[in-house]
Amino acid sequence: MFNQRVKIKQLLSGTPVGTDVVVMGWVRTFRNNQFVALNDGSTNANIQIVAELGKFDDAILKRITTGASLKIKGTVVESLGKGQTVEVKANEIEILGDSDAEKYPLQPKKHSLEFLREKAHLRFRTNTFGSVFRVRHSLAFAVHQFFNERGFVYLNTPIITSSDAEGAGEMFRVTTLPLEGAPKNDKGEIDYTQDFFGKSTNLTVSGQLEGELGAMAFSEIYTFGPTFRAENSNTTRHLAEFWMIEPEMAFSDIEDNMNLAEAFIKYLIEYVMKHNEDDLVFLDARLAEEEKQLPTEKRSGFGLIEKLKMVLENGFERITYTEAIDILLNSNHYKKKKFTYDVKWGIDLQSEHERYLVEQHFKKPVIVTGYPAAIKAFYMRMNDGCEPGKETVAAMDILAPGIGEIVGGSQREERLSVLEARMTAMDIPLDEMSWYLDTRRFGSVPHAGFGLGFERMVQFVSGMTNIRDVIAFARTPNNCEF
Ligand code: 4AD
Ligand code: MG
Fold this sequence. Notes:
The chain is an alpha+beta fold. The chain has 14 helices and 16 strands.
């Protein structure tokens, strides 16, 4: 019986006048004891329900409050009101669930994003979060469509692992050992052989290493799953639990990798522009409003949709790390000592440097390649012919306006001896990684891949400035509500 309901999006896009319909949703507002704005999350647009005066019991009308859920049987009629072509004249109103107006946290007014973060269990019911999460859904769908069209195999890599793919030591431990009185070995260390898996395990920081195993058989795979980082970064771009998409391609080099990443990002943007026009129009206006509150120098100067179109129409700038450092050193910004962190060859680019390059200098997405080997992960391919002391790897980061790093990737070191030497130098135990090294022992091929931070992509497309507002329930230091 519930299946007979029509979604509001469908109802508003051409259900003929005179049709009898069943609609269900939550009350956004109730005006003049007569007009209900009902929303079911299929679109930000509400359907206006008209409860003709005198037709319904006061007892029922009293229960039509903001947040209450209703089932309406009625007839589609032409609307005389502004901003809508049709409305529904109610014949029957059933209250599915009451909502105490005094206690319901979402009042029909504008709430701050900070307030809504604390009410994250209800914020999906606001226009902003309705649009953000429909856009997020579309992006996820487009991810699969993009790779499916190109013959990539979707590989689900494990969440619990015993390796640190990035070698950065930012892992959440997984254990069933007791915190107090954990068993110890002869050396007085915790004895993980007695743990659930018989070894020390953690939540994955990346599916890449297992992804590489897949690429060595299917040629092209991608992962799309949650990843976890125990980095103590309280910023608008870091989460402790985030989703990442990691394609991995055999028979590919860094150039192929850049081409795929650029095509991928453009495809995702194009998909949302085509399928979520209403949501983007809403988010564009929301961002413009937010930017008005900022001092002029902090405004981006572009509308959201305008920015997305620009990204689609222009090639990403491609520069080397060495060129990036030169640009920074020659900038007025540097000369006027406006960077907090020092700039010299060998540094890891800080977000202020990345943002300068993208937002001030190039004003479009930038792909930086050839980073110093010393600041990058063990699996990246050593570039040939480097000056001693200035060794670089075939890494690539994509930096996006307003976000900074959105993609991190590389061509992988396919030469067994070079890889082993690098791992040894970085204290990565070769025996534990024997399964990984097997790919280089048996039919090794040049291959490459990257990771796109899904939430950063949602931020970029939705214009939301804080990453906590593009994931349903954010996990950040000192915060694990819901
Ligand atoms: O640059 P990262 O650390 O690269 C990797 O994990 C590689 N294994 C990817 C690969 O080559 N297959 O992370 C990739 C992307 C970053 O560019 C960023 O967009 C996102 O993941 N990311 C985060 N997003 C939100 N919160 C965090 N704490 C993030 N850390 C990385
Ligand atoms: Mg990175």
